[in-house]
Automatic annotation (TrEMBL):
Residues spanning the membrane: 7-36
Region feature Disordered, mapped onto this chain: 318-337
InterPro entries attached to this UniProt entry: Ank_Repeat/CDKN_Inhibitor, Ankyrin_rpt, Ankyrin_rpt-contain_sf
Key words, A-Z: ANK repeat, Membrane, Repeat, Transmembrane, Transmembrane helix
Record's protein name: Uncharacterized protein
Keyword Calcium: no
Pfam families: Ank_2
Sequence ranges of the ANK repeats: 133-165
């Protein structure tokens, strides 16, 4: 009851245009906190969408120093907690009113199936919920070609025939953005032959009867043409396109014969210059590497010659030393023999005291 009274107060204040913006802002903060405490998710979403700054509303504290998140946690309002988490998910921008009001649409647009499942299963959103443009999460997923999200939405029973304010179904949105796999899934066509479907035959009236999403869908209610008039208009427009293309080809041919330079010629010339520049840079790099390799090979030859010279010097030094050692050993052996041959000629005198 308190929440309803607060919402009525907002409507009347906007209707009579009372000049008390500051009072209204603080009053909105109060009822946002009340909605979070009571777990009234729809009221909570509506109030946030009416405020200028959703970030300020979520961060504002009451007299007890509690913000919206604290109140939802204290009173175990899981739907409010889940909604805030979904709002924080989109780029950390809590000031985005569309993100705050429709987190399921954001998850479907980004192809985040886990977040979408969580929001639906926790009861935070309804899978057929519409945003300000009348689009459902299926419209958002179809526009981006997220097949897994579409398959799950179809599985849980989402309505694929809902139209947005432009009169488009999810299938029409997928066609507009050329997501053929999404079109195949939404239309339930098991055999979707792209070539047969989109072959242009100007003699086939059915081709002009079959059409995609019409232009100027924002003012679709103002169109009063019948289907036959639309078909005739498409035929005339197609014939005009064919005629203009033929005239364009003739004009381009005449322009080239007169020596004119087309944008395509300039583009080719630019690509050729860029290719030549790249080739020149690669050739210079190759020449540099070749000279560097030759220099390294010369250094290697010098080092090898130096190593050979040092090896020869070491061999020359080691050979004389070996000869000297052999001579010394021969002389010492001769002296030993001489010492052994000496025999005393007389006896040994011993002195006695």
């Amino acid at each position: 009851m308190r929440i309803r009274a607060c919402i009525l107060f907002i409507f009347f204040s906007n209707y009579f245009n009372f000049n008390f913006t500051i009072i209204l802002f603080f009053f909105l903060l109060l009822i946002v906190h009340l909605a979070a405490m009571e777990g009234h998710l729809h009221c909570f979403k509506f109030l946030l969408s009416r405020m200028n700054s959703g970030t300020q509303a979520l961060k504002a504290f009451n007299d007890n120093g509690e913000n919206v998140l604290d109140l939802a946690q204290r009173f175990f309002k899981h739907n409010i907690l889940q909604f805030i988490q979904g709002a924080k998910y989109e780029g950390n921008d809590l000031g985005d009113q569309e993100t705050l009001a429709f987190p399921g649409h954001v998850a479907a647009f980004k192809g985040d199936l886990e977040m979408l499942k969580k929001l639906v299963e926790e009861g935070v959103i309804n899978f057929n919920e519409r945003d300000d443009t009348g689009s459902t999460p299926m419209h958002k997923a179809a526009g981006q070609g997220h097949i897994e999200c579409l398959q799950w939405l179809i599985k849980v029973g989402a309505d694929s025939n809902i139209t947005n304010k432009a009169g488009e179904t999810p299938s029409d949105v997928a066609k507009r953005f050329a997501h053929l796999a999404a079109v195949k899934l939404l239309e339930g066509l098991q055999k979707y032959d792209i070539d047969d479907e989109y072959d242009i035959d100007e003699n086939d009236l059915k081709f002009f009867v079959r059409h995609g999403v019409e232009g100027s869908t924002d003012a679709k209610d103002d169109l009063s043409l019948s289907e036959s008039d639309k078909t005739d208009a498409r035929i005339r427009a197609y014939n005009k396109i064919t005629e203009l293309r033929h005239l364009l080809e003739i004009a381009e041919s005449n322009y080239k014969h007169l020596g004119g330079i087309t944008e395509e010629d300039l583009k080719q010339k630019k690509e050729q210059l860029e290719s030549e520049k790249t080739i020149k840079e690669l050739q210079d790099q190759l020449e540099y590497e070749r000279l560097r390799r030759e220099k390294l090979e010369c250094q290697l030859d010098e080092y090898r010659a130096e190593v050979d010279q040092l090896r020869e010097t070491m061999e020359k030094i080691q050979t004389p030393n070996f000869m000297d050692v052999e001579d010394d050993s021969c002389e010492s052996s001769k002296e030993k023999r001489r010492v052994k041959k000496k025999v005393p000629s007389a006896g040994v005198f011993v002195r006695r005291y």
